[in-house]
């Protein structure tokens, strides 16, 4: 089964949305910053309540990185506003300061490719969107599995690091900030020496192919 709709590298449609803060066009919200756009199957549901609470608790982490949050749930604005006290009560220290889009007619969800093909309805999806309004990373979870916010943050840090270095580096498995990165295969050793004057190490592998090059960056 091929999932329809926008995916990595595609521009998010410039939809006009109604949110718990105000109405705006998505591209205006995305402009000049990265955004984590995350959808939920519905208000007053258990897993979603824990997730929005965690997003609120992690809000300062996103703010430190200059990244905006934008929620989406398939209920109306009043329902969202009535739900927020539950979210904040369940996760102590959490404040829902980010806007939540209303989509009571389920018109926005399919345009953002946030459909759960198993449930045939709104999904537990997440897009990380760049300031160019293009999707840089997507997660799609089934309704039974809540997200891991540490992984969302780690993946975001990876994207920001790669973008900072014009995608000439990539982050290896389980990478975390301040750990070494790998150099893109598209970068020659000569270019790598200029990009990484501090030097890099080439892993000695049985194939003798020098493709796995590791560097420290900041």
Secondary structure layout plus pairing:
Elements: E1 16-18, E2 23-25, H1 26-30, E3 34-40, H2 46-57, H3 59-64, E4 67-73, H4 77-90, E5 100-102, H5 108-111, E6 115-116, E7 121-122, E8 124-129, E9 135-141, H6 149-164, E10 169-170, E11 181-183, H7 189-195, E12 201-202, E13 213-215
Parallel strand pairs: 3-4, 4-5
Antiparallel strand pairs: 1-2, 3-8, 6-7, 8-9, 10-11, 11-13, 12-13
Describe the fold and architecture:
This protein is 29% helix and 23% strand. The mean pLDDT is 94. α2 packs across α4 (77-90). It has helices at residues 26-30, 46-57, 59-64, 77-90, 108-111, 149-164, 189-195; strands at 16-18, 23-25, 34-40, 67-73, 100-102, 115-116, 121-122, 124-129, 135-141, 169-170, 181-183, 201-202, 213-215. The chain is elongated, with a radius of gyration of 20 Å. It has a five-stranded mixed β-sheet. A four-stranded antiparallel β-sheet has the order 10-11-13-12, with helices on one face. The protein has seven helices and 13 strands. By secondary structure, the chain is an alpha+beta fold. β6 and β7 form a beta hairpin. It starts with 15 loop residues before the first strand and ends with a strand. This is thioredoxin-dependent peroxiredoxin. It comes from Brassica napus. Its EC number is 1.11.1.24. Residues 6-161 form the Thioredoxin domain. It catalyses: a hydroperoxide + [thioredoxin]-dithiol = an alcohol + [thioredoxin]-disulfide + H2O.
């Amino acid at each position: 089964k091929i999932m329809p709709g926008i995916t990595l590298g595609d521009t998010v449609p410039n939809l006009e949305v109604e949110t718990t803060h105000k109405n705006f066009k998505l591209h205006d919200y995305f402009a000049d910053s990265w955004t984590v756009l995350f959808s939920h199957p519905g208000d007053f549901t258990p897993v979603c309540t824990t997730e929005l609470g965690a997003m609120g608790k992690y809000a300062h982490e996103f703010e430190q990185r200059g990244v905006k949050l934008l929620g989406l749930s398939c209920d109306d604005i009043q329902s969202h506003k009535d739900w927020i006290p539950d979210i904040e009560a369940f996760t102590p220290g959490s404040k829902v300061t980010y806007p939540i889009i209303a989509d009571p007619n389920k018109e926005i969800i399919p345009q953002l490719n946030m459909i759960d093909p198993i449930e045939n309805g709104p999904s537990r999806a997440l897009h990380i969107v760049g300031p160019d309004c293009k999707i840089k990373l997507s997660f799609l979870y089934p309704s039974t599995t809540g997200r891991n916010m540490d992984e969302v943050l780690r993946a975001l840090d990876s994207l920001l690091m790669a973008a900072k270095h014009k995608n000439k580096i990539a982050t290896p498995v389980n990478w975390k900030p301040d750990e070494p990165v790998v150099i893109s295969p598209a970068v020659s050793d000569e270019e790598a020496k200029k990009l990484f004057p501090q030097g890099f190490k080439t892993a000695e592998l049985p194939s003798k192919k020098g493709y796995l090059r590791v560097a420290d960056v900041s």
